[in-house]
Design goal:
The structure is a homodimer. The two termini of chain A are 20 Å apart. By secondary structure, chain A is mainly alpha-helical. In chain A, a hairpin with a 2-residue loop joins strand 1 and strand 2. Chain A is 70% helix and 1% strand. A two-stranded antiparallel ribbon of chain A has the order 1-2. Chain A has one domain: Farnesyl Diphosphate Synthase (Orthogonal Bundle). In chain A, helix 2 packs across helix 6 and helix 9 crosses helix 10. At the A-B interface, helix 2, helix 6, helix 7 and helix 8 of A face helix 2, helix 6, helix 7 and helix 8 of B.
């Protein structure tokens, strides 16, 4: 990867991220609109930064298929709203019970638990309100197919199902027996969680961008493989950076993550980095049929692998 | 309302309710499919009975516009899934903290709080997966418009916004100030809650059925008014039946509901019944432009007013 290309993908991320930020700002209800507390919480959780990976992948995939960023921007915003809703619910006391995210109080700490649940629900609904707007210029047929793709990726076969597997894997007890817990070692279990919990929405983001832009079947197949492998690699590096960050902050090996169903817990830091590198290679190889149109997505995959935050 | 008509609407409700029950059974993931606990919880919450009012209104509205029940069945199921998800989240400890619903343990009592949150989220996603299936025979354009109608009705301008107003109205305290709480008496506040919390989805159900079936603008306008007024009357009678039921069960005036933002608390039982009767008259009057095609919806409105459970 040449340094010129690095500049290109960095500039692309900055430009498209800014486009998404502006569109999210416009799509969210104004903070002074009643009920204010709800709208304030929605804005707090969505506009507080973030890499905008999923929406940028919608845009990049659309552009690789000859589409324009503007035409897919509502769907790009929608996948970010869905991501934000999932984090709010994941952080709840009954789930991961997290007090901070990105160095700020989580939604339920800042606004109370009831408002946090409803803020997630409102973002979920707003996402589909955005996806289904027919003014996007992609046509109703394509828009409907993309909407269905995303809805399928965030349900029991995807994001929510993965979150349930994650909860089961943490060894929490449930009133009912949990025959859904896969039998086997953590090394078998962890990929199953993260394919659903993280990779499914990232894969759907890539696919939706292509679907909205009329990507051919072979292109769509290539982008599906790319999306799933990049999505899984992204989660692995996230977990690795958590461990490395904890080690730096604590000045010792971070043991708290060992109990969680993460790649570093299952494969160690070095082993996890190797898996992520292999997945990235596979993702890039899958882009073959796109030729030059895949250059940006290829560079993006490499950038995500070597990122340090 | 003649007794012959009573039989007709009763038979219609039974037949269409059965159609919806069968379609819901088929749409929900099998209970033995992993993660089983999630799928068991989804089925427990959706298949445990219920009047199927919202889906039947989708079907009845579609039929009033010349559509077939089969073509709108996925959307009919979707609004029931959304209704079920909203009840699960409403019942959570951080919200209404209800242990029972329809005489059975609520979702979080039966399956734990984390699974209950995720069950609601999964039903929400499944609803949009159903709505956006393009095989419904209504065409992509109409399907997309109906999907957007429903997404708009369950967000901050509708169901979720109403639930937030309800929480604010119960005088719960929030970390942030609540300037969203309307100033004025409970009599001014209660209708604002219920128009959003209950009537918005019922109105959207009626409108979606018409939109999917190519209802003319004048018909759609008539059905919108009908849907909102029937939706509000439905909530009022629900609250009245709660009070009457409590009085019967306790053998005395039920005081516990007085603190809640309900129509009986604001207007008394007799006053609430009068308001519901007036709204029903208005709903029926709004059906004027439909002529004979509105007969079933008219009888349905009357039946909902005089129901005893």
């Amino acid at each position: 990867m040449s340094s010129v290309t690095d500049v290109d993908v960095g500039a692309y991320l900055a430009a498209r991220g800014g486009l998404v930020d502006d569109a999210l700002e416009a799509a969210l209800p104004a903070a002074d609109r009643p009920p204010q507390i709800l709208h304030q919480a929605m804005r707090y959780c969505v506009l507080g930064g973030g890499k905008r990976l999923r929406p940028v992948l919608v845009l990049a995939s659309a552009e690789a298929c000859g589409g324009t960023p503007q035409a897919v921007l509502p769907v790009a915003c929608a996948v970010e709203l869905i991501h934000a809703y999932s984090l709010i619910h994941d952080d709840l006391p009954a789930m991961d019970d997290s007090d901070t995210r990105h160095g700020r109080p989580t939604c339920h700490i800042a606004f109370g638990e009831a408002i946090a649940i409803l803020t997630g629900d409102a973002l979920h609904a707003l996402a589909f309100h955005l996806i289904t707007q027919s003014s996007s210029g992609c046509g109703a047929e394509r828009t409907l197919v993309a909407a269905r793709e995303i809805a399928g990726a965030i349900g029991t076969e995807g994001m929510v199902g993965g979150q349930v597997l994650d909860l089961l894997g943490e060894g929490r007890t449930f009133p009912a027996p949990s025959p859904g817990l896969p039998v086997g070692s953590i090394a078998e279990f962890v990929p199953q969680i993260h394919v659903r919990k993280t990779a499914a929405l990232i894969r759907a983001s890539v696919r939706a961008g292509a679907m909205l832009s009329g990507g051919e079947p072979a292109t769509l197949e290539a982008l599906s493989a790319y999306g799933e492998q990049v999505g899984l690699a992204y989660q692995i590096i996230d977990d690795v950076l958590d461990v490395v960050g904890d080690e730096r902050a604590l000045g010792k090996h971070a043991g708290s993550d060992a109990a969680k169903a993460t790649y570093p817990a299952a494969f160690g830091v070095a082993g996890s980095r190797e898996i992520a590198a292999r997945l990235t290679d596979e993702a890039v190889a899958a882009l073959g049929p796109l030729g030059d149109r895949g250059a940006l997505l290829r560079d993006l995959a490499h950038l995500l692998l070597v990122r340090e935050r």
